[in-house]
Structures are given as structure tokens and as C-alpha cells.
Amino acid sequence: MPLKPPVFNPPFNILRASHVVLGVSDLAASRAFYVDCLGMLVTEATKDTLYLRGIEERNHHSIVLRETGESLCYALGYNVAEEEDLDRAAKWFAARGLSAKMVERPHQGRTLLARDARGMPLELYATMWRDMSAIRKYGLHRGARIQRIDHLNCFTDDVQSSFEFYNDLGFRLTEYTDTEDVPPQFWAVWMQRKGNVHDIAFTNGAGPRLHHVGMWTATSLDILHICDVMAAMGYVQNMERGPGRHGISNAFFLYTRDPDGHRVEMFTSDYLTVDHDNEPVRWTLRDPQRQTFWGHPAPKSWFEEGTVFEGCPVRPPVLEAQPIVAR
Amino acid sequence: MPLKPPVFNPPFNILRASHVVLGVSDLAASRAFYVDCLGMLVTEATKDTLYLRGIEERNHHSIVLRETGESLCYALGYNVAEEEDLDRAAKWFAARGLSAKMVERPHQGRTLLARDARGMPLELYATMWRDMSAIRKYGLHRGARIQRIDHLNCFTDDVQSSFEFYNDLGFRLTEYTDTEDVPPQFWAVWMQRKGNVHDIAFTNGAGPRLHHVGMWTATSLDILHICDVMAAMGYVQNMERGPGRHGISNAFFLYTRDPDGHRVEMFTSDYLTVDHDNEPVRWTLRDPQRQTFWGHPAPKSWFEEGTVFEGCPVRPPVLEAQPIVAR
Amino acid sequence: MPLKPPVFNPPFNILRASHVVLGVSDLAASRAFYVDCLGMLVTEATKDTLYLRGIEERNHHSIVLRETGESLCYALGYNVAEEEDLDRAAKWFAARGLSAKMVERPHQGRTLLARDARGMPLELYATMWRDMSAIRKYGLHRGARIQRIDHLNCFTDDVQSSFEFYNDLGFRLTEYTDTEDVPPQFWAVWMQRKGNVHDIAFTNGAGPRLHHVGMWTATSLDILHICDVMAAMGYVQNMERGPGRHGISNAFFLYTRDPDGHRVEMFTSDYLTVDHDNEPVRWTLRDPQRQTFWGHPAPKSWFEEGTVFEGCPVRPPVLEAQPIVAR
Amino acid sequence: MPLKPPVFNPPFNILRASHVVLGVSDLAASRAFYVDCLGMLVTEATKDTLYLRGIEERNHHSIVLRETGESLCYALGYNVAEEEDLDRAAKWFAARGLSAKMVERPHQGRTLLARDARGMPLELYATMWRDMSAIRKYGLHRGARIQRIDHLNCFTDDVQSSFEFYNDLGFRLTEYTDTEDVPPQFWAVWMQRKGNVHDIAFTNGAGPRLHHVGMWTATSLDILHICDVMAAMGYVQNMERGPGRHGISNAFFLYTRDPDGHRVEMFTSDYLTVDHDNEPVRWTLRDPQRQTFWGHPAPKSWFEEGTVFEGCPVRPPVLEAQPIVAR
Known about the structure:
By secondary structure, chain A is of the alpha/beta class. Chain A has helices spanning 27-37, 83-95, 159-168, 220-232, 288-291, 300-304, and strands spanning 14-24, 41-45, 49-53, 63-67, 72-80, 100-105, 109-115, 121-125, 148-156, 172-178, 186-192, 200-204, 209-216, 239-245, 252-257, 263-268, 281-284, 307-309.
């Protein structure tokens, strides 16, 4: 677990995790879940694609659902600072022998499709078509009153490799789990660009796979309310874990599964991490309050299931350590 | 201000304040306010009447809006324990020389229309047509998520007279304001039947007039949310006072005016008063935390305006004392 | 499961469940739990007894902890309307051949010690020494900001017998669980005097035993906060179940175990039941949303463990049906 | 009101507003206010200085109170990325003919004392002595549960000048108020470094003066609770404005005055602004929902009073336009 120093001047400037593109089997069922129940806003709906955003987001989309019939993740989306960053990124990926292709994407213009070191599909863009935020249109706030996308959380077959890749790109480590082996090894890492606990996180497991997309709400009462709404609207089986509190990141969370099994976390209450001398918080794998500061143990599915990335083979994990699983 | 002992075995058994009947000029405008904005549920809408209820209420209605073109209050509604109480009540009113007439009312069957000692119109019934409560239908909760009617608050020209009338009917004094005159006199009284701070309250003023109908919400966050929703939906001028905290009753409150000027309070956080040895809380008129434990002073309109009762002349108040009014 | 009609004119007038008397082994440990963590107020502490109350309570105590070295429940306390009710009660118990003895109790004066039909120890009093409520002393509110005792929940070996006993005393059925046998039988009953869902509840099981004392908080955020506080102060093992939502009573709950294993529920969000035509809500034992509208299944301990009553043998339950238990 | 383009590569890297240094007349009175009432944590108390921080802060201090007997602001503190930024900053200030002196400060090491274009005293440092965050020590959370400093808000005699100075330093404009003159002029600007709505804001007025320090809380319920606590603890006169909602920044706010008249805002619910194509939100001075999305109008004191900066003369404002003031 060599902790590498943070990179404050990365080769190109990723600002934050901005969106995720998921394949679904039935757009109407997805819309019922994300819009009618969770309360996300529809920016645009085409015959085969639904573009969703949270109430504070001006971006055209933070969740894109494509009716492909395959329960895959097609891309993890990141916003870069300016157009030139796309060119710098293209060169950087190419120099490392990684796939990188510039395309045009609706609503986000010139977009770099690339693969990270483990093969996860990324799409980078500089400018997205922007709309009015609905943050002050309180009459439209429904369900969980999701404000915005916060982070992407993935299984990786090699946490150290994933850590180093994103560390090189300027993602800064905020919290991590240590196996307590000799020498110590990363079990999981939380890394940020935008100044809170994470834009992306990696946990050891069969991967790469998407564990969940994390959506931010303003308060824990919004999360309690969506529990009530989900239970009332027939989605009680889609509530996989929580509500509860993680030790890690101090998150108050609810994990849900959408109709295709994609995992959506609603979460709140992490903290600011912009100082350059911010020390990562270390947790040990055996610390029970790491995963569950309080609340019921996570079910087996939460540890084992995830969304496969399009075109990216799943490999067994490097480490064999095991966290505390629900009985 | 002779404090009379509570009457634990009243001549007939009123259970609680149950509804109010208001005249409006435009049912569509009223519906926009009460339903689209505040989030009340519509049990029934006829050509000229809208029957509304809160999310926990099984009763057919707690607010009845009749498009009469006159901004009047037609009745304060009370639920009695059983049919026989209506007969007992009819006799009791008659014996006192007060108006009392038995009629049939839609959804509430045999109903006694009566006048109290000051002339306020009452309607008493024993059994209302009941529906499923929406308390667990969380997908339908909107706006202030109003749970139920809580109380009726009136100006009276003679607080002592109103106090004695309702005290005789078993309403118990929970809090009161004393003018500090010699001898002391009531400025205002809060009286209950259902076990919290009030079913009805009276304040000295030109009256009788309805000051407000008080609707109960589960939490103060519901009241903050409706502030946001009202401001976002163009009802900022309808927010008359609050949010704030009264010393009296510990209520967290927001006072709004509906499109016809009827005052609707959303309130929460009072307390249980069922013990027979519960001592009334005394406040003095000069205590600034009586009206406003914190928050801005009430505007002049809040002290002066109210809804006139149908068929009930407004008289100047007996007392001339003045509470603390907003600068 | 013969549903008996409610008794609106009971032989004596119990107003509400008012307190519970529990035996503990170490008052300092109990104080750390109830006062330093949960935030209850101490009215009085003697060498061997701790008298606690919630922030809205004027009563001297709602939880009495006696350092007897035995983890027993010594009494379920009820408030009656007036002194004469104690005499009426004494006669009524005697006429039924049930134990009943008048004693003096500190802070509550003349007190009737009695046993109910299943042998559970009761203590009835008319007037308790009263202090100022701390409801407006917000600087003293800590932990769960518990406002008041709400209810007592017990295992009984014979639900039908317990139901009938309390029904005769004017407790009204608000919700119940039906085994769906032919003929149907009660699995559990919720019964009230004070106008919300319950003052006492009974569930089929080895009994009589106290399942829990239910303490009311104003909002669900208070309950979330106490989860955080308990986890931070080393009480995570004392969090037995929740937070979650029951279908029954719409309660948002957290079940905790005190240092002696007594179960304390913090709960909020039930509803008003004062109407005499209020129909009991029926649930079937197989309905998964009965126990858990959402949230993790209850652990085995929650179904099996309880506090034994002093001097009251525990008998196996009459029914053998089984609710849905956590895997 | 020439809107200048944002500067993404500033001459040195300020990360965020980190602290404020205030003079007080009685440290005991200040401690009662900030610690016993608001609930801030004491990192260190010397004979004449009190160092305070919020519950998520690892920094040694975000509010420093010095018992100087003068109600002044001695410095606005900013965190820079690394030690070299201090040297770059020293040169940059010197090159502009602005005061800049490197000193040692307890707990923050090498510190650059400087003056901005209007004469406001700044102190910049790279590394502060860090302690454990109390974010998970929930048993210590009290009062408003203030999490961290968020921003500094100042009157300036020349908004355009202040805007340009901070724009040059990489502060990005997120919202602004326009006088609607021809040509348009800035009335007020909100500018950020850390990715939410502001680290510093300027409003036209007699200045420079500190209008308030803004402290962030997780939820609006924390702000309601501190209203109750302040009123209960005798600080009702210290509640100057609110609670209410600004249109600007979507902030839910409460403005308080400390015992020396320094203004402390508790606020929550703004939004993320890290995207480089984030467009500033424009408000007009006449828009009533700019200042008060809902809530009572601000009192005169809120528009007129502020804390003078040490060694910095107050000048009349350049503009004469007037916002909407409370009647």
C-alpha cells in the first residue's frame, strides 16, 4: 500500500465526476423509478434515452439511461476544465497505450472516450449544454429531492493500480481502508477532485464493475422520506441497505437498486477536503464502524453485486481479505 | 378573570374541533392554494364545494370551501362522541335560549346547527363518512404534508364570556394571558378537549371573528418547506407571519392567508395535556416571549384582521389593553 | 378473536400510561445511558433510585430506576383522573379477586398497587408532584430530546385475555394483528386511553413480560441523531433494531437496550384516535409491511427477549403462530 | 459593471477563506455566546485569546477571539496551497505597492500579513496545526452544530474595485446584483475558491467593513434549533435577522450579533460551482426575492452596521443606490 503523494498539477484538469451512462431494458420502468419515485428531473426524453438531473444541477444530465436491453454501464462521465484539457487528455491516454477517441456527443460537444488502466470506460467533456437550475423551483421538488450527482463507486480487481492511475490524474486520497497485512495493502480508497470526500471510490472485488452512483441530498430527512415513498410505491424490495451511517466519509446513506439492478445511493453529510495538507483518514478492514458506524450489517448482495462495464472483462480481485458481511 | 374549575363531566361530549366551513369567491383559486401548493387532499369536489382533508385524516373533510362569493365562516365543526350527544346538546342549547337546529348534512349525517354565547355558528355531528387515511401513502404527500386539523382560533368581544361557555362544555384551560389589571382579566385563553394545547382559543378583539384555522404538521421542516414552496409558486404575499416560535403552546408556526384572506396556520410541536391536574400556564400581556419566543414581531394585520362569521354581528371588545405589535 | 365493543364509560378513569419502574444493577451505568447519552432529565436521584422525565413532562418521573440488582419490572404506572378513581379501582379489582393494595408512594401520594388479569403489576395514582416542564428550556435538550413517555408494550401469554381486561377498563383498540386462523385470533393489539395509537400493546409470547417502554420524540431527526450519539459514545451494541418504520401505528422507531437489557423504544409519528367511531386497523400476521414498512427485519432477540415482571410467573403463549423473523 | 473573465491560473493559489480574527471586550462573555450557546468547540484558550472551530474542522481555529477591548476585525484568514504560494503572494502584493509582511503565527507557522486593494487586513498561511475532526464525536455536538467556516462577507466602498482585486486572485463570480443603471454597475458580488457559492462577498456600503462571518451547518433544523436555544438562553436580542431564505445563493440563514456586535451568520443549502463554465447568476437590486426569497424584511441595522477593520479607514460608498429595507 504505497501511499503516493498527491499530484497537484495533473496532466489535464478533471473537475469532478459528472454523469453516468447506464443501459436499461425498459425505459418506462426506469422512468417510474427515477422520476415518479425518486423525483429526478427529466431534461430530455428521446425514443430510447432518458436524460435526468438533480434539482440543483444546471447540467443537461447526470444520469443517462439508454434502452439497450443490457444492464451495463457504458461510461463514467467527467467534466474537464476547458477544451484544451480534452486534447491534453487524448495525448496522455495515447502515450500510455490506453484507448482514447474523440467523438461528438449530444449536449456535451467534443467528448473523449477513453479507458482507464483497468479498462473502465470514461467519457470526458469540457462544456455541457446548461439549463436553469431548479434549486429555487421548490414546487417541483419531489421524492428524495436529489440535488446532484456526487460520486462513482467501483469494484476493482486491483485497488493499488486504480489508486495510482487516478492519483496521477490529480484525484486526492481522502480516506482509505488498510488490510493490516505486512506490508499493508489498500482494501479500498476514496478520492476526490471537487473538494469533498469523493468523486470516485474503489473497493477490492471482482472487477472492474460499477458498485453504485452516489446522488447527494441536502438532508437526512430527505433520505428518510424516500424510504417511506419507496415502501409506499411498491419499491421496498429495491431498498438494499440502509438507511444508516458509514464511518467512512461520515455518510448518511440509503442504497437502492433500480429496475435493472443498477445500484443508486442517496447520501449526505460528508465534509470539505480542499486543504492541500488534508491528511487521508485511515480505517482498518476489521473496524466494524468503518462500514457501519451504526445500522444493520450490509447484505451479501451489497458486497458481491455490481454493474459490468461495456467492453470490459471482469477479473478476480488481487486480494482475498474479507470485510464484515451480514449474517 | 375568575378561573373556573374545569368541568370533567360536561352536559354532552364534544371530542374535538373537527372542521371549518368557509366561503370563497373562486374555487379554482382556492384549490390552487390549498391543494396544489399546501398539498391538502381532495376527498370530494362538487360544482360549488371543495372538501379537503390532511394526510392522516380519515374524516371526509376538515376544511370545506363553499363558493358563495362571500369571505365568511359558515361554521366551526365539532365531533361529538355519539348520536345521543346531539340530542343532549340540542336540549342544552335550547335551555339556554341559544339557537339550535337539527339538520342533515352530506357526509356527516344528523348535524346540530347552533350558536354559542357570542353568536358564533357551530355544527356538531357524531359520525362522519370515513375513508382510508393517506398516512402511509407517502407518494401522495405534498407541500406542507398537513396531517390534520388541530384547532380553531377566534377573536371574541368578551373573552371571559367565551371562556365560561366552553369551560361549561368541558373544554379545559391549558394556557392563558392575563392583562395584569386589578382584578386580573383574561386577554386570551387556550382550551382543549382532545388532549393537546387547544381545540379552540379566544383573544380579545372586535368579534366574534375567526382568527385562523390551525393545521398540524409532523415537523418544523415541513413548515420550512412550505415557505419555500409558497415563495416559489408566487404566494410570498400570502405568508403573513413566521416561521417563528410562540412562547404560548411552544408552537412552531407559519401564518398564511388564503386567496380570500382566510388565515391558515401551519403549526407543530405543542404537548400533551390529558392529566386532570394539568395546571394552566399563565402569561402576561407584556411578556415579549408570550407571542414571539423568537422571530419577527407580528404585523398589524395579524392583530386586526379576521374572518367574519355568517349571521353574527361584530362588536367592539370589552377590554382595551394592547399586545406588543410590530413596529 | 371476538372484537368487543369499546367501553366509553369504564368503571374508573385511567388517563394514560404514565411511568414504569425498573430494577437495575448499577445506577451509575444506568445514568450514563439514560441521562448522558439519551438526554433524559433527572428530577431526583437518591442513593438507590433515579427519577427521570422527558423535556415536556411536568410529572416528577416517567422512568424510575431502582438499584435492586434484579433486572425486573416492578410496576407499570397509570394516571387516573381523580382520587375517587383510586377507590373505585380498588373495589373493582377486589370484586374480580385481583390483588389490590393502597399504599403511599413518594411524589405520587396515594397509590393503588394491583395486578391485572395476567398478573402484571400496576400502580395507579391520581396526582403526581409536578415541576416546570423543560419544553422551552432548549439549552437543556440533549441526545434524543425525548419529550415524554408514550406507551408500554408487553408480551402476554394470552392476547385475548389481556385485550378483554383492558377493553373493560376503557382502553380502545386502534390496531391489531390477526392470525388469519378460523376462527381468527388476535396475535397482537394496540390500545389507547390518551388519544393516539397506544398506551399499552400486547403481543403473543412467553409472558407476561415487558417488551419495551416507548418514549416519544418530536421528529425522526431526533431519532437519527441519537443513533449517531449512541454509536459515538460506545453504545452501538445497545442499538437492537432500527431506525425503521412500522406499518403498525406508522411509527418511526429505534429500539435500544439499556445496560440491564430493558428495551427502550424512541418513536414518533403516529396519529390521533380520539373519535369514537375510529375503526381499528387490521393487519395480518403474514403482511411483511406490518412489522417493517421498510427497514431491516427485526433480530431474533427483539421477538424473544423481554423484562420479567416482579412476582409474575412467565407462561408459554396460547398461540403458536410465528411472525416474520430476521434471517 | 465590466464582468471580467475568471482567472483560472492565479498568481498564487488561495484555497479558501479559513478564519477570522476578531477583537472582543470580554472573553468570558464571548465564550458563553460562541461555546455555551452556539456550541463551537474550543481548541485552545489562553489568557487573552480563544481559538474556536466547528465540528468537522481539523484546523486549529476558524474563529479567533482576542480580548483587545476593541470591537475590530484584525484579519481575514485564507489558506494557500503550499509554502511557495506565500512567497509568490508576498511578491505580488509588493509589486502592486500593497502592504505585505511575513510573520510567524502560533498554530499556522509562516503567515503573510497583507492588505487588499481597499485596505482590508488579510493573513495567508499554508499549513495549520491540525487536530482530529469531531465530526463523528456526536456526543460533543451542541447548539447549532456548526460544522465549519464558510465565507466572509464585507461592505466595500467600491464593489468594482474589490471584485477586480479578488477576480485577479482567481476568485470566481457565482452571483451578483446589478444596479440596472446605464451602464450597469455591481451592487454586490459573491465569489468563490472552494467550489460552492462563496468564500468572500462584497456589498456596496460605507467600507471596508466586515458584514459577517458565515458558518455552515448541515441542515436547516440545526438553525431552527439554535433559534430556540438562543431564545431560551437569553440571547433573543442577539438574533438580528431570520431565519429566512435568500434568493441569492439559496441560503437558509440566521444572522446573529455576538456580545461585541460582530455579526455571525449560520447558514446552509447553497450549491456546487466547480464547473469552469458555471455562469454567474444575475439579480437586480429591485428584485424583492433577491434578499428575501421569503421571510421578514431585513432590519436597518443589518444594512448599516458592520465591524471596522483594524488600521483601515471607512469611506463612503461609490454608489448611492438603495436596496429594499424593512419598514
